[in-house]
Structure formats: structure tokens, C-alpha cells
Amino acid sequence: SSKTFWTTTGMFPQELIIGFPKCVKISKVAIQCYLVRTLRIERSTSKEPVGFEQCIEK
């Protein structure tokens, strides 16, 4: 479905930035992917997408 399928150019690295209108507590993140060497999740408390700090890298 075009509402649930995310297409990419196939180039890397790729990043997806999700913003919320206010601070929220996220207790779980589910990601489905394949042929990925490294996956990193970062966070920022800034209103703009800057000043990210790493949460986890696998």
C-alpha cells in the first residue's frame, strides 16, 4: 500500500526524521528492515532537527 510502503533511492546512508509538536515519551520503536549493517537511533529535544544524541547503535 502506498500509505505503508516507504520507497528509497537505494543510496546510503539513509535517515528518517520524525518530529512531534511537543515532548513525548516513546517506550517502543519497531523497525522492519533487511541487509542493514548498522542501525542507529538518535534523539533531540530541540524544536529544530539539530543537536542529536545517540540512544542506541546495533
From TrEMBL:
Single GO BP term: intraciliary transport
Organism whose genome encodes this protein: Aleadryas rufinucha (rufous-naped whistler)
GO cellular component assignments: centrosome; cilium; intraciliary transport particle B
InterPro entries, per the entry: Galactose-bd-like_sf, IFT25
Name of the featured protein: IFT25 protein
